[in-house]
Amino acid sequence: MVNDSILRRVSAVLLFMLVILIAAAIYWWVLKWDRQFDWTQTQGNTLSSSSVAVLAEINDSLSVTAYTREQNSAVRKAITRLVERYRRYKPDIDLSFVDTDAEPQRVRDLNIKVDGEMVLQLGDASEHVKSLREQSFSNALQRLLRQGDRWLAFVSGHGERKPEGKANHDIQNWVNELKEKGFNIANVNLSETGGVPNNAAMLIIAGSQLNWLPGEVDHVIKYIDRGGNLLWLVDPGSDYGLSRLAEYLTLSIDGATVIDPLARLVGIDNPTFAIVANYPKHPLWEQFEATTLFPQITAVTPLADAKDWRQDIILRSGDQSWLERGDLAGNVRLGDDDLAGPIPLAVSLQRQFASGESYEKAQRVVVLGDGDFIANQYIGNAGNLGLGLRLINWLSENDNLIAIPTPERGDRELILSFFESQLIAVGFLIAIPALLLLTGMLIWWRRRRRS
Predict the structure, then answer these.
(1) Which ranges constitute the DSSP H helices of 39-97?
(2) How many CA within 13 A on the CB side of residue 230?
(3) In sequence order, what are the residues at sequence separation of 6 or more whose Cβ sits closer than 8 angstroms to the Cβ of residue 3?
(4) Sequence-separated (6 or more) residues with CB below 8 Å from residue 369
(5) Which of 26, 136, 154, 266 has the greatest number of CB atoms lying within 10 Å of its CB?
(6) What is the pLDDT of residue 414?
(7) How far is residue 378's CA from residue 362's CA, in Å, rounded to a whole number?
(8) Which stretches of the chain drop beneath a pLDDT of 70?
């Protein structure tokens, strides 16, 4: 009995020492191998791939100055947690806090409006961030990286899609994304302004529905002649007096509608919807693998003798598609007058434009046979938003921002009824502890009976 008692005590001591050694080994391993895991459904504690890509483009040191009251510890901790997520990928981010009560003049000079507002400084450029959301912070970083003029001039006066419009056919959602990325928006009526403003980064024609005046077309051609960039979104149907602009760009715009049987295979019971999943080699498509959806699109074909322009077909329809020149009603089939696919849907043009005696700039134009793909009704489908942002980044010569993924992940809420929330509270705060207590008492009672 004595030997058995000694053996049990030795075994207990050895087991205790083994547990201590294992715990120490785990502690040492945790200190040596710093790893973090985010098991939340929305990955809310981890930077998205788009944010990581933005950080990869920042070569200089970044400073973050947060303006908040000293006693507001909750906001300071939240800001620190947000910045620490970015520091995991860029350790040299400098974070400092300014007590708004102690330095009111500095707050007024910088026009700080929100407690917890952050000022991001990269070189001589700065941006304000008023939200603790990752997307707001990353959008500010993109604005810091963006070079050149930020004004996008949208042509108006011919029934074009409205940048501020909320209707299904308008483009407010796309424009709001562009504003978040640092672009400024202006509506330009060429008859009133007498031309395109000189500070415009590009001119955008978002699907005209009324005829242009000859003088308005002259303004656009003059703008291109002086090196301006252009995004022209065409819709099937009439050219509305813009045929001379197409001739100037050495392009043929057919006006007929592309029919794509592939749309039925993805559940779209409308043959005028075109699906594009394969893209040619072009800077626009770097690391782009999403499918894009075009509700109604026409053919845009480059012609010979493009002078000094380099022309590239950047979008084509599928092999089974065709350009329908007949009636779209009823059972549409490929006819003798139709053009079998693949059909060119979009063309990019670029050339080196001499701006002064010693400076050349890259001049860029994109003509695409559909404007519905960026309309409010369709911008959220597949990769349409990503395509819309890539077109603007390429045309504005922000090539380093083209391949940054478009964030598509949104926050998700768990909404519980009052009964469900109370059930969880009672379960975790009362039922489970009571069960553990009863289990412990039962084990104690059984051991006492045995002794």
Answers:
(1) 49-56, 73-87
(2) 29
(3) none
(4) 234, 235, 236, 253, 258, 294, 297, 298, 299, 300, 345, 346
(5) 154
(6) 60
(7) 31
(8) 1-4, 30-45, 147-149, 330, 355-359, 407-416, 451
| Distance of alpha carbon 62 from alpha carbon 120, whole angstroms | 7
Question: 285 near 334, Cβ under 8 Å?
Answer: no
Question: Which CATH class for the 149-401 domain?
Answer: alpha beta
Collect all residues with Cβ–Cβ distance below 8 Å to 128 and sequence separation of at least 6.
Answer: 112, 117, 118, 119, 120, 140
pLDDT at residue 382, as a whole number = 83
For residue 292, list its beta bridge partners.
276
SS3 call for 259: strand
Cut 0.85: pTM above it:
no
Place of tokens 């409308």: 270
Whole-number pLDDT of residue 76: 93
Number of H helices, E strands in the chain: 13, 18
Torsion of CA 150, 155, 157, 163, to 10 degrees: -60
Boundaries of every domain in the chain: 49-143, 149-401
Question: CA 51 to CA 137: how far, in whole Å?
Answer: 9
Nearest to 263 by CA among 222, 233, 227, 291: 291
pLDDT of residue 3: 66
User: What pLDDT was estimated at residue 357?
Assistant: 56
Tell me what pLDDT residue 40 has.
54
Q: Which CATH code, of 1.10.275.10, 3.30.499.10, 3.40.30.10, 3.30.750.24, is assigned to 49-143?
A: 3.40.30.10
Task: Give, for 99, the enclosing helix (H) or strand (E).
Answer: none
Largest CA distance in the chain: 112
Q: Name residue 375's amino acid.
A: A
- Assess contact for 388 and 174: CB atoms under 8 A: yes
